[in-house]
């Protein structure tokens, strides 16, 4: 609808579009739909009682402070805890390296605000997290893509892509959204070395790192970078901005994430945050600190891992039984997602309509591709559902895929003969 | 400090600067400083017990939903409540006219994102809220200023300023930050009419409207606009975006505000919000709804008004006794601030150093002027302090002003005579 406001929108709004995932979340709120669409953690595993205790304690002991205005950088105890946790990766992080954000999504927005001029290129994985594309489209970013395989970003393609002069590299090394792929240690080292040689910074997005279901933890890029440059002193000052969040380990409803980076960059990002939302809710920060402290965060992650592993396994097993031949998928060692590739003849957006008729939903993969490719791919979330529901949903989805395949492989119907 | 990151910052960061108010808030955290600097509500009046009840209820009855991802537009019951409250002003508002934001500051940021191209002009009051300048500087806005007097924006200057072609008009009609001035009904009508004739939208920022200490409520611009265009149907579709917040009536630590506007603009702003922080904390939204519902919001505002009036009166009375001749100030009918003008010879930023030596703080007025004028002005907050502390602080500040005045009016010291 054209209104008096329409011709006043800024040019950048032309690159904004509603996220398909979020529109789908609306569509799939009906209880009879089995939705593999959202990147939702299991609501039945939220530590609600612990949140109740924390709220009671924060409001009775520090109610006035929690409800008053606070500092842009974040509450000191929380920043100290985040610094301590990050230091376990073998890097020296102080609170001056930590900015608390209103979810990881705000971290992406602030990075766009501080670094991206219209037309600047960003190096992303193909496919990559669509929320990052959405955040940076608003700053009129362009993209250079590097393919992802079973070992994560194909670093062999890095040097060529860097010749396009991207402002920074955006990497999701652990259980990547959407493919679930994990960047191997060897490739992490190559990525850090190449980025350093070319003088291009790295944004490392790590919402899922704690959710590993098998295999050994691999050092994050920020730690490999610190080692690479021999940083041993106080305060990280290297080539990586490291992003994480409580959304997948505690609860997304908090909207609580953080950025780790060199102190001067953190200061600049905090300046940008001031104009954006002044600060993140102090009540939420204090409650999250109380919930996470005393070792609870680690303890809770140890509860989540086996539960999510069971769900992943249920989905993989159901896919083996119910999906037609010609469909392939990833086996993620952690995180929230399985990524499926269908025969080239299938358009996943068309398939979604068919799937919704079967009361099952997923996210078509094209939205995760900066260059619009990936039309025959889809992302499936396995954490927000019981194994029984997963099994039922995959059976329904298998039926929808089979029907779509039948249709494209069936010979075209013979033209009806005119009556003579 | 120049680092490898510095030359990668986007051009827009040159227009970002750290807000003086927020830097001052850091400086003035020492307990022995009496700070009139921040725009802080009274922490001792926060309804902490009510928040405790609300947290308990929300987490026990809807814990999983409150902690899960939510919709970008905001929680439905809260949007309905906001629509209902706004409808009391005599306009028909539905939930499609409401976007929940992470504080009013995010509303300003989203408006900048959706409307401001680099170099676009915004019509602001002189002086105006510095947080708006900060939000829009990041989108490289330019400004046209219209003076404020005791009756608010001088609408006689409007037509000339509109000839500069501003993208929108930014107005704070009630107890303006920083002057405390209130736009008269006659001027409100003129502003709405002129804006409509020129086809320029209005952003109406109203964080303090509920906090009136004397005189009659005046209709907001959004209601006058609806009347002006004869909008009587369902859903507001006029020329005004109306902003408000719970920060001054419940608690700023929630970071909870909202935008009322035409449904198509609300949709576009929600699209921008998706990429910015996905959504505002559902836990906070549900808790705020529980706190505010059942008539509590109105009831609590009736507690705040007399308490804040007493503090305002204490400050006005102390200023009459303790401030030197030649200083003048406003008498606000509501809100949080008194605005003082000193003789032209005084630089308020210099004075602040003197004042900090006396353990008292305020905000120098220049920061509220888009054109850098106002160096002899200051903003004083009266809500965050007991009358006794206000009195003591104003006495200290009076001493600092008197000393500064003595120095500029004293004849220059005679040069010392060389010993012969």
Q: What can you see in these coordinates?
A:
The structure is a homodimer of 420-residue chains. Chain A is of the alpha/beta class and 420 residues long. Helix content of chain A is 41%, strand content 13%. Chain A is built from 13 helices and 14 strands. The first copy, chain A, has an eight-stranded mixed beta sheet with strand order 2-9-8-7-6-3-4-5, with helices on both faces. In chain A, helix 5 (130-137) links the parallel strand 3 and strand 4 (142-149). At the A-B interface, helix 1, helix 2, helix 4, helix 5 and helix 9 of A face helix 1, helix 2, helix 4, helix 5 and helix 9 of B.
Architecture of the largest domain in chain A, according to CATH? Answer: 3-Layer(aba) Sandwich
Going by CATH, the homologous superfamily of the largest domain in chain A would be: Type I PLP-dependent aspartate aminotransferase-like (Major domain)
- Tally of separate helices of chain A: 13
Biggest interface, CB < 8 A: A-B, 89 and 89 residues
Strand content of chain A: 5-15%
Mean pLDDT of chain A: 93
Q: Domain count of chain A, please report it.
A: 2
**Structural class estimated from helices and strands of chain A:** alpha/beta
Could you give the order of the helices and strands of chain A?
HEHHEHEHEEHEHEHEEHHHEEHEEEH
End-to-end span of chain A in angstroms?
Answer: 51 Å
Output the strand order for the largest sheet of chain A: 2-9-8-7-6-3-4-5
Q: Mind summarizing the main beta sheet of chain A?
A: 8 strands, mixed
Assign the CATH topology of the largest domain in chain A: Aspartate Aminotransferase, domain 2
């Amino acid at each position: 609808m054209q209104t008096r406001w329409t011709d006043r929108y800024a040019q950048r709004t032309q690159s904004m579009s509603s996220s398909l995932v979020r529109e789908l979340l609306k569509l799939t709120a009906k209880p009879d739909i089995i939705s593999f669409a959202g990147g939702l953690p299991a609501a039945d595993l939220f530590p609600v009682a612990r949140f109740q205790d924390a709220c009671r304690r924060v409001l009775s002991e520090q109610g006035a402070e929690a409800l008053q205005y606070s500092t842009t950088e974040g509450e000191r105890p929380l920043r100290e805890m985040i610094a301590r946790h990050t230091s376990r990766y073998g890097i020296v992080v102080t609170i001056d390296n930590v900015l608390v954000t209103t979810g990881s999504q705000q971290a992406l927005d602030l990075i766009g605000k501080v670094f991206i001029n219209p037309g600047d290129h960003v190096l992303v994985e193909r496919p990559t997290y669509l929320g990052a594309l959405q955040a940076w489209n608003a700053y009129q970013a362009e993209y250079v893509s590097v393919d992802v395989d079973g070992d994560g970003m194909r670093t062999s393609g890095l040097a060529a892509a860097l010749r396009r002069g991207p402002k920074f590299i955006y990497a999701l090394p652990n259980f990547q959204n959407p493919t679930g792929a994990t960047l191997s240690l060897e490739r992490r080292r190559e990525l850090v070395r190449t980025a350093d040689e070319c003088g291009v910074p790295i944004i490392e997005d790590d919402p899922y790192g704690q959710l590993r279901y098998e295999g050994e933890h691999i050092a994050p890029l920020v730690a490999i970078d610190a080692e690479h440059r021999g940083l041993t002193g106080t305060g990280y000052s290297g080539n990586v901005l490291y992003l994480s969040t409580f959304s997948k380990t505690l609860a997304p409803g908090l909207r609580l994430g953080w950025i780790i980076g060199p102190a001067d960059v953190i200061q600049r990002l905090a300046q940008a945050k001031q104009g954006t939302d002044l600060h993140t809710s102090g009540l939420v920060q204090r409650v999250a600190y109380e919930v996470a402290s005393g070792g609870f965060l680690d303890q809770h992650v140890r509860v989540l891992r086996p539960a999510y592993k069971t769900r992943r396994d249920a989905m993989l097993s159901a896919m083996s039984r119910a999906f037609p031949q010609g469909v392939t998928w990833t086996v993620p060692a952690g995180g929230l997602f399985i990524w499926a590739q269908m025969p080239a003849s299938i358009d996943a957006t068309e398939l979604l309509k068919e799937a919704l008729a079967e009361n099952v939903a997923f996210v078509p993969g094209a939205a995760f591709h900066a260059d619009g490719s990936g039309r025959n791919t889809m992302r499936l979330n396995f954490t927000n559902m019981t194994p029984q529901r997963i099994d039922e949903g995959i059976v329904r989805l298998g039926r929808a895929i089979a029907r779509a395949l039948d249709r494209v492989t069936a010979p075209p119907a013979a033209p009806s003969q005119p009556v003579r």
